[in-house]
Amino acid sequence: MSAVFDALLDLLNLEKIEENVFKGRSAHTSWQRVFGGQTIAQALVAAQRTVEPTRLAHSLHGYFMLGGDPNAPIVYSVDRIRDGGSFTTRRVVATQHGKAIFSLEASFQKPESGLDHQVAMPDVPQPEQLAGQRELLERLGDGVPEVVRKYWARERPIEVRPVIVEHYTSREKLKPVQHVWVRFAATPPDDPAMRRVLLSYMSDMTLLDTSTFAHGRAIFDQDIQAASLDHAMWFHREDPLDDWILYTQDSPSTSGGRGFTRGSLYSRSGTLIASVAQEGLIRLKRKPNN
To answer: Which ranges carry the Acyl-CoA thioesterase-like N-terminal HotDog domain (predicted)?
Structure first.
């Protein structure tokens, strides 16, 4: 198993402090704040720890209030809102330095059958036909901004192969659409609850960027202030997550300093695994007055 993937699993193994209270830590990176996907995933772990194992998350809704400090532990407090006949509801508040940085509400359901349909997966090139981010660095050379080069070069628990690469090197106004193949660096555990946690971690990747394409910009631009504001996710179908997953995204709107993006996660065979929606801060920084 990959060392970076092992490290991710360890990061998601929260310490129980007392009943309904858990503690998480952050990865040691050069980032100035905690990756949002980590906070979502850890909060979901905390909620799941208070739910009977046969009930799995079918949806979550979270709000980011403050950027997380990667050098301090995060405390997750779970409120057992309701245990019903079919559904269980939990609320989680993540705190650091005495302040709430993130809140999550998640719903869990016992398995049941019913009507079933889904929209088809877009027709895009297969991941074997595409270059990975390190290959793109070699191919595109100096056309990739330095901040993007550092991001791509770092070893991570998720491999990414973008279908569309123009936005990395161009500042032309593009359609606010993105397709990305993603794959975990190792096979996830055979645990449906943990697979949902790992999907929630993955789901925070590349969404904010999609809302900047129509404006010829990227979240790495020096004049852009970007941060996740809220995040919602719905888990539709089981998947072992042992192969490439297509993450399709589109941004219907950017306005008022906020960008909105929708996402769908498909298995390679075309099964719709989960859906995502996120609004993020996309603010133009003001130039200082002379």
So the answer is: 30-109
For residues 125 and 181, give the distance between their C-alpha atoms in angstroms, rounded to a whole number: 10
The span from the CA of 80 to the CA of 90, in Å, is 5
Q: What is the pLDDT of residues 259-268, one digit of tens each?
A: 999 999 999 9
Phi then psi dihedrals of residue 146, to 5 deg: -60, -40
User: Quick check: 213 and 249 in contact, CB under 8 A?
Assistant: no
Radius of gyration of the chain (CA): 19
Tens-digit pLDDT profile for residues 181-216: 999 999 999 999 999 999 999 999 989 999 999 998
pLDDT at 224: 86
Question: Is 204 known to be catalytic?
Answer: yes
pTM exceeds cut of 0.90? yes
Higher pLDDT, 278 or 142: 278
Which tokens hold the place of 269? 């065979």
Catalytic, out of 133, 211, 228, 275: 228
Give tens-digit pLDDT for 114-164: 999 999 999 999 999 998 777 777 776 666 666 666 666 677 899 999 998
Amino acid identity of residue 37, one-letter, is: G
CA-CA distances (angstroms) from residue 213 to 220, 243, 261? 12, 28, 11
For residue 231, count CB atoms less than 10 angstroms from its CB and return exposed for 0-12, middle for 13-18, buried for 19 or more: buried
**Is 160 in contact with 127 (CB distance < 8 Å)?**
no
The one catalytic residue in 38, 48, 133, 204 is 204
Identical fold at 1-111 and 130-290?
A: yes
Domain ranges within the chain, ordered by starting residue: 1-111, 130-290
Class for the domain spanning 1-111: alpha beta
pLDDT at 223: 83
- State the Cα angle at 155 between 25 and 46, rounded to 5°: 25
CA distance 133 to 181: 11
The highest-level CATH class for domain 130-290 is alpha beta
